[in-house]
Amino acid sequence: MKRLLLTLLLAVPVASQMGVKAQDVDNPCHNWMGRISDDAYFMQLSIPGTHDAGTGDGFTWGDLGDMFGKTQDLTLAQQWAAGIRAFDLRPAVGTTDDRDDLIIHHGILATNTRFEDALLLLCDSLRANPTETAVVMMRFEDDNGGARATWNSLMNELLSRPEISERLIDFKPKLTLGEMRGKLLLASRDAYDSKPKGAFITGWTHDAEFAKQKSANIKGRTLSCTLYVQDFYDLTASGALDKKVNAITTMLDATTTFHTRKYLSSIWVVNHCSGYTQSASVDGNRECAATTNKAVADYLSDEAHYGPTGIVMMDFAGVDHSGSHDVMGQTLLQTIVDLNFRYQPMTTAISLPEANGGQQDGVGVEASSTSYDLSGRPVSAARPSKGIVVSKGRKQLKR
Q1: Under 8 Å CB-to-CB from 264, ≥6 apart: which residues?
Q2: What does each C-alpha distance from 131 to 31, 36, 70, 309, 383 come to in angstroms?
Q3: I need a labelling partner for 73 at 20 to 30 A (CA). Which of 145, 320, 332, 354 fits?
Q4: Are 45 and 345 in contact (CB under 8 A)?
Q5: Three-state SS across the chain?
Q6: CA distances to 81, 341, 389 from 364, in Å
Q7: What sign results for the dihedral spanned by CA atoms 206, 191, 135, 145?
Q8: How buried is 348 (Cβ within 10 angstroms: 0-12 exposed, 13-18 middle, 19+ buried)?
Q9: Rounded CA gap, 359 and 296, in Å?
Q10: Which residues contact 259 (CB under 8 A, 6 or more apart)?
Q11: CA–CA separation, 36 vs 177, rounded Å?
Q12: pLDDT of 59-110, one tens digit each?
C-alpha cells in the first residue's frame, strides 16, 4: 500500500502547498538529464541538490519544527519533480509502531518522513524516469542521541532489500551518466558496514577555505577519489555571510580548473549554499538563502563562468519566495540546470549544432546560445576548439 501511495504521489503534478507556489512536472527542469549524452562524466555535470531535504515534508513536532528546523518548502516528491537530483538526508534511530526505525531528522527534530519511504520514493522515481539519476548524501544524525549500533543494523537491513538494492550503484570516480541512469548513488558520511553499498565519505569539513584544508575522500567498494567540500554554515558572526558567498564562488571557480588539465582529473565536488544567520531559526535559514542563492544564480548567469558546479546543495530549492524572504531557490535551480547546456563536458564531440538548432551528441543546445569547452573557449562549428573528450567512457585528447 505504501509503494502504491508513493507511486500515485509521483504521478500528481506539483501543486501549491500552504501558499508555496511549486512548478508543474512539465517545467523545463523536468527530466533534464535526458538531454545530456550518456558519455558525459557525472562529476562534470552541474547538479542541483537540497540541504536537509526531508524538512519539506514537515515535522512530528509541527509548528516547532517549522519555526526552527525548516530548510525546504517543497516535499521530496515535489523536489524531484522540480529537477532536484541530489538529496541530503539525515536518518536517526526513532520508533514506528513501537519498533526501532530510521527517521529523517534535522538535529533533534524528527521529520514526518521515514528513511525507507524516502528511498522508495526515489527508487520509484528512477524507475518511472529512467533517463535520470539521483545522489543521496547521508549521515548518522547523532544530535538525536546514540544508538549507533542499531543505526548500522537497520541501515544494512534496509539497503539489502531487493526493491532498493537493485537501484543502488557502486561508486567509482569516472562514472558516466549512462552508467548512472535509473540508478541511485548513496554516499554516506558514516560507515554502517565494512564496505559501502554505494560510497563512504571521510574527511568532511566545515572550513570556509577549502583550498587550504586537506580534501575529503569518497570511496566505493574498491575505487576512490578526492572530494572537495564547502559546507561553511555558521554565519552568525559579523561578516560571515560575505565570507560564505566568497567560499561558494571560490569553489565554483575551482570546479572548472579541476577538469581543464591535459588529463581528466578524478575530483568530485559538493558545494553548499546553505547556512544560517540566526541560530536555530527558519528565518536565519531564509536570510542566508536570500543572499547566497541569488549571489550564485547571478554568478553562474555571467558567461565568464562556463564550467561545471559539481553538486550544489541549497535551501528552499524550487521556490523563489519563502515567508517574507526572496530566497531565489527556483531561480538558482533553473540556473544550475541550464549551465549544463552552456559548456561541453567530456563527450564525443565539442562542436555546436547547425544554425537551425537541434541535437549534438544527445545534448540539446539552442543555436543562439554560446557554448564553451572546459578550458573556457567558445565552441565553434566551423573551427572546433581543442579539448579533452570522451568516447565510450575512455578519455582522449582532441587535437
Answers
A1: 41, 174, 346, 388, 390, 395
A2: 7, 9, 31, 21, 31
A3: 145
A4: yes
A5: CHHHHHHHHHHCCCCCECCECCCCCCCCCCCHHHHCCCCCEHHHCEEEEECCHHHHHCECCCHHHHHHCCCCCCCHHHHHHHCCCEEEECEEEEEECCEEEEEEEECCEEEEEEHHHHHHHHHHHHHHCCCCCEEEEECCCHHHCCCHHHHHHHHHHHHCCHHHHCCECCCCCCCEHHHHCCCEEEEECCCCCCCCCCEEEECCCCCCCHHHCCCEEEECCCCEEEEEEECCCECCCCCHHHHHHHHHHHHHHHHHHCCCCCCCCCEEEEEECCCECCCCCHHHHHHHHHHHHHHHHHHHHCCCCCCCCEEEEECCCCCCCECCECCCHHHHHHHHHHHCCCECCCCCCCCCCCCCCEEECCEEECCCCCCECCCCCECCCCCCCCEEEEECCEEEEEC
A6: 20, 7, 17
A7: negative
A8: middle
A9: 28
A10: 44, 265, 267, 307, 308, 346, 374, 388
A11: 8
A12: 998 788 899 999 999 999 999 999 999 999 999 999 998 999 999 999 999 9
Bridge partners (DSSP) of residue 313 are 49, 272
Cα dihedral: 18, 33, 378, 210 (round 10): 70
pLDDT at 397 over 50: no
Beta pairing partners, 136: 87, 186
Grid coordinates representing 222?
574498491
Lowest-confidence range among 193-197, 305-309, 369-373, 386-390? 386-390
pLDDT single digits (tens) 147-177: 999 999 999 999 999 999 999 999 999 999 9
What is the rounded distance in angstroms from the CA atom of residue 171 to the CA atom of residue 226? Answer: 13
Q: What is the pTM of this model?
A: 0.84
What is the Cα–Cα distance from 270 to 276, expressed in whole angstroms? 18
> For cell 578550458, what's the residue?
375
Burial class from Cβ neighbours inside 10 Å (0-12, 13-18, 19+) for residue 89 reads buried
